[in-house]
Design goal:
Elements lengths: L1 H22 L12 E15 L17 E12 L5 E3 H8 L9 H16 L3 H9 L1 E6 L8 E7 L10 H9 L3 E4 L14 H18 L5 E11 L2 H11 L5 E5 L29 E6 L14 H4 L6 E6 L9 H6 L10 H23 L3 H8 L12 E6 L9 H11 L4 H10 L8 H13 L3 H14 L3 H13 L3 H14 L4 H9 L10
Parallel strand pairs: 1-4, 5-6, 5-7, 7-8, 8-9, 9-10
Antiparallel strand pairs: 1-2, 2-6, 3-4, 10-11
Helix pairs in contact: 2-3, 3-4, 6-7, 10-11, 14-15, 15-16, 16-17, 17-18
């Protein structure tokens, strides 16, 4: 009996120790997808942009070394099986040289050691266990055959590319190529909470899309951008400008906290508006605190204005803003978790990842199961209680016609309908207007390609919108080239009526005055 009692005490002790360990550790428990995961660290420079100014903005001393913008890219991808998996500590080492490629491995290690020492506090032992635990990815693993849709991940304010490594690995295991680079300011590591502070990251997103296009296994025809916090606002800016982006995921995106940066006001980013973001959006957020201002509602005015795209709003009960970063999940102090435990927050984080995956499956892969998951109630998807709430807002109208739709209509209906089609699109609230220089450049390009009939109709449209002698001269030239000699003669006569001494019109009519087509009716 004493022996049995002793064994029972030992068992109780071990269970208590395991429970304590679970409570003070971050665990991403979502099962991985069918693919093994590889990761590469690629250090490059965007030489079209200057990063370092003439002097060091921290010390005032002359800047040293390469001055072009450094972009360290982490690329996660479906990979062949095998190899030693990285730990989060390995990821941490890569982040220590994101803005300075000259740092040695030993220097990066020392930086990481200092971060762990300062951030660990009373739970340093638990943090070290978290950092040592194997992740999914194998560094430089052989890529799996095939081409996979692409997700560009934009981290939060001045944050590292590893900020949500768990989510990035998870997506790669389900058949995505995921790229992330750090959030850097324009000329130093830290950015600013201004419209100017958004621009560098928005441009980095487009740069990463271009880089993804060089990867043999990346299908950039199926591309989305995901982002947390500041990155979830920068991706809105990028999507307003870059039609290659087909879907957006915003994890507690700062459009909720800084709507004035994209509302079209004097302090806002230029050329960004809800009408310009006409791609499906998944916004996953925390429930607003009771004392938060109305402008910080999970569906702020910018999202309310997105009438041209489906919007899925997911709210996770246990989450706070910082909880949408798995890096924070590891480094947060125990005292940071008040109303919910670390385990409960980790579980909610897993649901954020599930909704992200299923939304991307629906939008980029056309996956019926992904669409069904998004359309289901959270309870039908297996979410317990009030953990998850979902609000789906279907687009209420198609985007206002743009230049692309105008050209597509002409291609389908015939360029000879340019004037009525343009008039109709403008009546529908078109988002473009053919300016004088637009039609000149357009018609000239068609002329240079030998598309004389199409050029004729665009010159005709130009003369209709901006009547002038030179527009009529170009129109007459195209009428001649397309065999419309009688119409050309009438155009040249109109020119003579407006300008009797016009040599070009008179010379053409003299050459053709014996032709029936140029004889007076």
């Amino acid at each position: 009996m004493p022996r049995l009692f002793t064994l029972m005490l030992m068992l109780l002790f071990l269970c208590s120790a395991m429970a304590a360990r679970a409570a003070d550790s971050f665990t991403f428990s979502n099962p991985p997808g069918p693919h093994a995961v590889g990761v590469k660290v690629v250090q490059q420079y965007d030489r079209s942009r200057l990063y370092k100014t003439a002097i060091d903005l921290y010390t005032g001393e002359p800047a040293q070394g390469e001055r072009a913008r450094p972009i360290q890219v982490l690329v996660w991808y479906p990979a062949a099986q095998g190899g030693k998996r990285l730990s989060f500590r390995d990821y941490l080492d890569t982040s220590m040289g994101e803005d300075d490629f000259t740092r040695s491995a030993a220097e990066r290690r020392r930086f990481a050691d200092r971060l762990i020492e300062e951030g660990g506090g009373a739970r340093r032992a638990a943090l070290l266990r978290d950092l040592a635990r194997p992740m999914l990815a194998v560094r430089d693993a052989r890529a799996k055959q095939g081409r996979f849709p692409v997700v560009v991940y934009a981290p939060g304010f001045s944050a590292s590319a590893i900020e949500n490594a768990d989510l990035c690995e998870y997506l790669a295991s389900h058949g995505y190529v995921v790229l992330a680079s750090p959030s850097l300011g324009e000329h130093r590591r830290e950015t600013t909470l201004t419209a100017e502070g958004l621009e560098p990251q928005a441009r980095d997103i487009s740069w990463l899309i271009g880089f993804a296009d060089t990867l043999a296994h990346a299908d950039t025809g199926r591309l989305a951008v995901a982002g947390f916090s500041w990155g979830g606002l920068a991706n809105m800016v990028a999507a307003a400008r870059d039609p290659r982006i087909k879907a957006l995921v915003s994890l507690e995106g700062s459009v909720r906290y800084f709507p004035e940066l994209v509302d079209g006001g004097k302090d806002a980013v230029r050329n960004v508006s809800p009408a310009r973001v006409a791609v499906p959006l998944l916004y996953v957020g925390a429930r607003p605190e009771p004392d938060e201002a109305p402008s910080k509602d999970p569906a702020p005015s910018f999202i309310d204005g997105m009438r041209y795209a489906d919007v899925v709003l997911v709210t996770l009960e246990p989450m706070r803003h910082v909880d949408f970063s798995s890096l924070n999940g590891r480094f947060a102090a125990d005292s940071d978790f008040v109303s919910h435990t670390r385990d409960e927050v980790a579980t909610a984080y897993g649901w954020a990842a599930r909704y992200t995956l299923r939304f991307l499956d629906a939008q980029l892969k056309g996956d019926a199961a992904g669409r069904a998951f998004i359309d289901n109630t959270p309870a039908a998807n297996g979410a317990a209680g009030n953990l998850v709430t979902v609000d789906i807002r279907r687009k209420t109208q198609d985007p206002a016609p743009g230049w692309e739709s105008f050209v597509a209509r002409l291609r389908a209906q015939g360029f000879e309908h340019a004037i009525p089609v343009y008039t109709q699109l403008q009546a529908q609230g078109a988002s473009f207007k053919v300016e004088r220089n637009d039609f000149i450049g357009w018609a000239t390009a068609l002329k240079q390609r030998g598309r004389f009939a199409q050029a004729r109709e665009i010159f005709r449209l130009g003369d209709h919108l901006y009547p002038s002698l030179w527009a009529k001269l170009d129109l007459a030239e195209m009428q001649v080239k397309t065999g419309e000699v009688q119409a050309a003669a009438q155009t040249y006569r109109t020119i003579i009526a407006l300008e009797p001494d016009n040599d070009t019109a008179r010379a053409w009519l003299r050459r053709h005055e014996s032709d029936d087509a140029t004889s007076p009716p």
